Amino acid sequence: MKTLFILSLSLLHFGVFCQTSTELLNKVVSKINTVKDYSATAKISANIPMIKILPSQATIYFKQKNKFKVVSKGIVILPKQGFTDLNAFLSNSSKYQSLLGDTSVINSVKTVVITVIPKGDGNDIVLAKLWVDYARSVIMKSQITSATNGSITTTFTYGDKVSFGLPTKMVFEIDVKKFKLPKSVAADINQKKSLTPADTSKKGTITISLSDYAVNQGINDSVFSK
Fold it and tell me: How far is CA 159 from CA 12, 156, 168, in A?
């Protein structure tokens, strides 16, 4: 039995590395592209040094290509990198080259690491490192370095909408010093005279739980123009 187990692992490892990084990413993108539109309820909580932000609830709307809107009565801190920017970037394979790395386990899920390097100038994303669940063709973790927001690490949890590549939970780790916060929050930081450079260099987390998905039900363009 032990020999068979080792053999099955070896075959799995061999099967993954028979695929190129481009083939693996194409499968991820193909799954993402099955979503023409969706809406979802988002519960958002932020743990950012020196800032008190109450948990908030929002409704998120998305429609191809790259129409995105968040509706909430409270202050919402929601990194676009995890929702639209990365997906849009990966959808155009001519804009980057990718390199296949080692396998890794993320939250008990076997993944393969893919490094994505943009071609040419003009890309906000400078470098991306992706941990891809090759069995389900979804991203379990991403580490994105961008020109506007520094480095953001995101972990994804999936539920009943995994067939669409839509997560039920996302946890972002941000660099407070570089991340673009809403103006009201940024003003609050500036008013805190006790805040030192050491404070602003700390890491913060943003947790988003997603539920009540309505996928491919049709969303009017007017939703995004209001």
Answer: 24, 10, 6
